[in-house]
Structure formats: C-alpha cells, structure tokens
Amino acid sequence: MPCAFYKLTLDKDRKAFKAMLDERRNLGLSEAESGGVESNVRLILDNVRKNGLQAVIDYTRNFDSENFREEQLAISPEACAEAARSLDQQDLEIIYEAAANIRCFHEAQKEKSWFITREDGSVLGQTIIPLNRAGIYVPGGRGGNTPLISSLLMGAIPAQVAGVREIAIVTPPRNDGSVNPYILAAANLLGIKEVYACGGAWGIGALAFGAGPIRPVEIIAGPGNIWVATAKRLLIGQVGIDMIAGPSEVLILADAGANPQLIAADMLAQAEHDSLASAICLTTSAALAAKVKEELERQLPTLPRAEMAGKSLRNWGAVVQAPNMTEAVEMINTMAPEHLEIICRNPWAALGGVKNAGAVFLGAYSAEALGDYYAGPNHILPTMGTARFASALGVQSFCKRTSVIAASAAFAESGAAAVARLARLEGLEGHARAAEARCKTVAQTQTI
User: Fold this and answer.
1) What's residue 327's pLDDT?
2) Crossing angle of helices 89-107/181-190, nearest 10°?
3) What is the assigned CATH class of domain 38-241?
4) Closest by alpha carbon to 77, among 184, 181, 178?
5) Is 434 helix (H, G, I), strand (E, B) or coil?
6) Per-residue pLDDT, 97
7) Pick the CATH number of 4-30+247-372 from 3.40.50.1980, 3.90.550.10, 3.40.1650.10, 3.40.50.720
C-alpha cells in the first residue's frame, strides 16, 4: 500500500488523519530549527550583508560550482539571446504560448487607481503604484539540469504586468558555472536584462542587500527550498516577500463517478516533486477509494521518480473516505490546500462551499499540471494551510496602494469636533488642536 487510508466515520482514523496534517503543517518551521538551517542562514545573510560580492562568490564556489568566476555572475542580454537561438524552435514556441497565457490571465488582475468626491467637495481615493525593482528567485532543479522555466514565467510576468521597471533574476549555476539555456531563453523572451548565476540563501541575501552588480530590490518572489524560504522569512522588514512557501501539495475531492486512473496520476504528479510533497484523495465513495489505492500501486512503479514519489505517498499521502460531501467540503476548508482538484459530477456546485484553497481545478480535464505550466493562473501558491489567509502570487503582489485625502474646508470644519474628541480620548492633545486649528482657519477665511 503506497499511502495510508483513513475513514473519517471512525474516531481513531479521524484523529490519526488530523495528527498527520498537524505534523506536516509544522514541518517547515521544525525542520529549519532542528536541522540548524535557521542559524546557518542567519550567518550567510550576515556575511552577504557585510561582504557583498565576495561572500556570494565564495558560497557559489562552495555549493554549486567549484571553479566559479566573478565574471560568470552577471549574464548579459546577448548571452540570453544566444541561448534562445540555440534551442529547438518548437520548445521556444511552447514557452511563448505558456507566457502568453500567463500574461493574459494576469492582465485581468490589474487594479486601477480610484477617487470619490463628497458633496462637500472633498476628494478621497487610492492610487495603485508598482514597485520599482523586483527580484525573482528561480530554483536550479537538480543542479540546473531540470530548468524550472515555469517558475521564471510565473514570477516575472505578474511583475511586468504590474509595471515594475526593473526585474532581476537569480538562479543557481550548474557545475561548470553556466545557467541552463532554457532559463536564459525564457528571460530573453520576456525582455529581462538582469540574470545572475547565484542561488540559495546567499542569492536571496544578494537581492536584499546588494552584491557587486546585483542592486537591492524592493520585493523578492519565487519558490525555493528550506534555505531559500528561511532566508526570505528572516528578511521580512528589510525587503518585501511574496510568501513563505513550504513543500507542495494537492487535495483531490472526488465522487463515485470520478476516474481512479486520473486521480492516481494526479497524486503521483504531485508526489514526484519531492519527498515532503503531499497528495491526498478525499472521496465519499468506498468503491472509488479502493480503486484509487489499486491505481497508485499499479502506476507508481512505472514512474521515473518512483522512489521519491513513493516516500512522499508513504509519509504524507492518503486516501480519505468522508461520510458525505458536506463534511468533505468542511475538511477542505480546514486543510486549506495549495492545489484543490474537484472531480465530481457537478464541480461548480462544490466550489461554492470552498473558502480556503490556493488554486482550484474544476472537472476531470483540469489537471494540476495544466495550471502548473500553461493555463495562465499563477502556480506560486500558499502552502501548509496558509491558504486560510494568503493568496496566489499576482499583479497585486508587486503593487502598493496609497490612500489619498483632499479635504475641503467644509469637511475639515464639520469633522473637527469629532476628531478632537476621539484624539482626547486617546490622550493626544496635539492631534485635537491640529483638527480644531482648521476651524479657526476656515472662520478667518470666511471673515476676510
């Protein structure tokens, strides 16, 4: 049996399933603390802050490329263009299509500045201002040999749509100090001029503090391992971040009519990410639960990453039988999954009850993989239950909202007494007098 089975009508199963969820939700923080990751990341960030470029070069040589040279750090736009020319034209067209879909989706997210005018002549509103400079972290992926093109597209395109003028990409180099040409080609396609061959916590530190040619940014976005996530967490306040993401996860809600082959395939697609990934099927059908378990056993050995996926399923995977659809949806909202697939006869009806999920995939044709790469919505999503309060990376992540108040004389005068009273209740006499001073100014103006 590749994963556990829980029947929520049994008290012992319900408690065991909850214990597994709680253990995984605390996984990221406990791993960072018990493994010494946080203390080491603090040292790395402090070194980069103090020593800048030299620290980044040293760490890159120690962890990624033994003979890394300083001149390999900044990759020129010409080199990115050359990388694009070296790739198969069909691959370039696929990247272009994916980028176009992602851009189209995020264009619809753009917010506008707005203003309202009161009858007394006051104008109130909000301006939407893009950040000036963003850093996008692109994981290396098996030493740079499995380029995470989609992460670059998902991180950079919303920033471009938001209007961010400067975008810097950092990504770990391969053993020879180079960056995978697919990453460079994707940057070239988007017209990004800054690509740097450095990763890990020191790459995050370089974006936050600056290091040689890498100038500090205002926000850092993009997925990464526990070292990257910890670095981002420790830099909150120094720089903005998108989110602190943990291992990836999928929850599949299915009824009796769902196809068990598709469910198992989607669970394995998630499990092959890494050994900490979580893939769970939640169903009201005992017959479907049994068929999904059979399919997992059949399909798992055929997967190239079978060992990785198997470990993920054993530790964090599950097939769960709920007594009815109402309790199943309640369980979804409790779990707040990163990815939620709804493979039911009427998925739109189930969607109405879903309050907590990073992204929702409706119907049998909406594989999570479609969203990961091609459909358009962002795949940088809240994990580990944080979808209870957090949202996907989007255009809004790269913007600031600034309130605007242009009070008329009439508004200032009519509100002065109320403002002064509230201020004095809080013990702030200066605030009260500042509001009342407007009354005197209005009276003087009217006298003249």
Assistant:
1) 94
2) 50
3) alpha beta
4) 184
5) helix
6) 98
7) 3.40.50.1980
> What are the backbone angles phi and psi of residue 257, rounded to the nearest 5°?
-85, 0
Q: In angstroms, how far is CA 110 from the centroid of its own chain?
A: 18
For the chain, the distance separating the N- and C-terminal CA atoms, rounded to the nearest angstrom, is 89
Asked whether the domain spanning 38-241 has the same topology as the one spanning 4-30+247-372, the reply is yes
pLDDT along the chain (448 residues), means of 10: 88 92 76 74 98 98 96 98 96 97 98 96 97 96 82 98 98 96 97 97 98 98 94 96 92 97 97 92 97 96 94 95 95 96 95 96 96 95 94 97 96 94 97 90 59
pLDDT at residue 26 in the model: 81
Q: What is the spatial distance between Cα 13 and Cα 111, in angstroms, rounded to a whole number?
A: 46
294 is catalytic: no
Would you kindly state where each structural domain of the chain is located, as residue ranges?
4-30+247-372, 38-241, 408-447
* Residue 446 pLDDT: 59
Choosing from 339, 368, 379, 413, the catalytic residue is 339
Please give the radius of gyration of the chain, using alpha carbons only, rounded to the nearest integer: 26
Could you tell me which residues come within 8 angstroms of residue 244 by beta carbon, excluding any fewer than 6 positions away?
Answer: 28, 229, 232, 233, 386
What does the pLDDT look like over 49-69, one tens digit per residue? 999 999 999 999 999 999 999
Tokens representing residue 79 in the block: 């080199």
Q: 237, 240, 262: which is closest to 252 by C-alpha?
A: 262
Residue of 218, 272, 338, 341 marked active site: 338
